DNA sequence: ATAACCCCTGTAGTATACTTCAGGGTCAAG
DNA sequence: CTTGACCCTGAAGTATACTACAGGGGTTAT
C-alpha cells in the first residue's frame, strides 16, 4: 500500500493534483489508514498514468471521466471509445486549421516587413489596421 | 462623436468588452459627456478592429498592448513589430506541432479499433494504459 | 409620464486544471 | 524530544478574456 506521496512521485504528479482528481471523481475514493492517510493499491499509479496519457492526446478531465466510465462499464463497446477518440480527433483538427491560418497570415506579414524603418510605415501594423477578411 | 454602444456595434464587440479593454489599458480613456457617458471619436472603431484582428492572428491582449505601445512610439522600428510577429509565429508553430502529434496518435488508435467488441478488448484503452513515449 | 432603451459603477461568475495558503496533526530518525 | 518530512481539510488564488449581475440614472418617443 502506498501513501499519496508515493503515488504522486511514481505517477509524475503532485499530491495536490491527486487530491484534485479524487475530488473530481477521476480516482475512486481511497481507503484511509487509522491516521486518516489515504492508502492506495499499487495499480493506482497505472490509473494516474492513464489519466496523464489521455491528457497528452488532448482529452480534458471531463472527457477522461467519460472514458473511465466506459472502461468500467461491461455494457460499453469499443466503438463507444472510438467515438470519443474520433470526436477529439476532429476537435484537434479544427484547432490545427485555425492555427494554420494564423501561421500563414503571420508568415506572409513577417515576410513583407523590411525590419528597418519606422513603425509608421510598418506593413504588419498596416495589415492589422486594414486587413479585411481573415 | 459616438456613444459606447455605437462603437460596440460598429466594432463588432459588446459594450462590456469595450469597458474591459479600457480598464486593461488597450483603449485610451475616453472623454465624458456632461451626463458621464463615454464619447468616442469615429476612429475608435478602427482601433477596436485593430485589436480584434490582432486577436484573430493569435495575439493575446497583453501582446496587443505591447503592439499598441510600439505603434505609438516614434522611436520604435518596424523590426520591433516584426520580432513580435515572429515570436507569435513560433508559438503558433509549437502549438501546431503538439496538436499534430496528438492527431497522429489518435488517428493511429482509431484505425486500430475494430469498433465492435467489449471495452475490455479496446485497443485505444489499452494504448492509454500502456503507451510509453508520447 | 411612462415605456423602452441607453448609460454608469463595481463586483462576481465562467471555464480549465491545477497551485497555494492557512492552520494543524502524524511519523521516523537521531 | 525535537526536527524535518509527510499527511489532513477547506478555501482562495492563477491565467485569459470576457460575461453577467445588482443597483441606479439618463434619454427618447408617444
Main structural class of chain A: mainly alpha
Average pLDDT taken over every residue of chain A: 94
Number of helices of chain A: 6
Could you name the CATH class of one domain in chain A? Answer: Mainly Alpha
Stretches with pLDDT under 50, minimum 5 residues of chain A: none
Q: Whole-Å distance between the termini of chain A?
A: 57 Å
Outline:
Chain A is 63% helix and 3% strand. With 134 residues, chain A is mainly alpha-helical.
How would you characterize the overall build of this protein?
Two copies of one chain form a homodimer. Chain A is an all-alpha fold. The first copy, chain A, has a domain at 4-76: Multidrug-efflux Transporter Regulator, Chain: A, Domain 2 (Orthogonal Bundle), CATH 1.10.1660. Chain A is built from six helices and two strands. Chain A has helices at residues 4-11, 15-23, 44-56, 61-72, 78-112, 123-130; strands spanning 31-32, 38-39. In chain A, α1 packs across α3. The radius of gyration of chain A is 24 Å and the shape is elongated. Chain A binds a DNA duplex (30 and 30 nucleotides) through α2.
Amino acid at each position: 500500500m502506498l501513501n499519496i506521496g508515493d503515488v504522486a512521485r511514481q505517477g509524475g504528479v503532485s499530491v495536490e493534483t491527486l487530491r484534485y482528481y479524487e475530488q473530481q471523481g477521476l480516482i475512486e475514493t481511497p481507503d484511509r489508514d487509522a491516521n486518516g492517510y489515504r492508502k492506495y493499491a499499487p495499480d493506482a499509479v497505472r490509473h494516474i498514468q492513464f489519466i496523464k496519457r489521455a491528457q497528452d492526446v488532448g482529452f480534458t478531465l471531463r472527457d477522461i471521466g467519460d472514458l473511465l466510465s466506459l472502461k468500467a462499464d461491461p455494457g460499453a463497446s469499443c466503438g463507444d471509445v472510438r467515438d470519443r477518440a474520433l470526436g477529439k480527433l476532429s476537435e484537434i483538427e479544427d484547432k490545427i486549421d485555425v492555427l494554420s491560418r494564423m501561421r500563414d497570415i503571420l508568415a506572409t506579414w513577417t515576410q513583407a516587413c523590411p525590419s528597418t524603418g519606422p513603425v509608421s510605415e510598418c506593413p504588419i501594423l498596416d495589415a492589422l489596421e486594414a486587413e479585411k477578411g481573415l
